[in-house]
TrEMBL record:
Taxonomic source organism: Micromonospora sediminimaris
Identification of the protein by name: Helix-hairpin-helix domain-containing protein
Length: 64
């Protein structure tokens, strides 16, 4: 099992806190989540979303 799916990618601290507060602690949990839902989280910016999408794409996964 690929451990990079078990952690969040390197994104800003506010974005990481936003994901953790929403219950996301691993990259695999973000697969299929609507980008718009993540964009609404306080502290989540376009750069962090792009980083998450790029990390998911490495595993042939994506946001919805």
């Amino acid at each position: 099992m690929d451990s990079s799916l078990d952690t969040l990618p390197k994104i800003s601290a506010p974005a990481t806190r936003a994901l953790n507060a929403a219950g996301y602690t691993a990259l695999r949990q973000l697969a299929g989540v609507p980008r718009a839902d993540l964009a609404r989280l306080h502290g989540m910016g376009p750069k962090a979303l792009d980083t998450i999408e790029a990390a998911l794409e490495q595993h042939n996964l994506r946001l919805s």
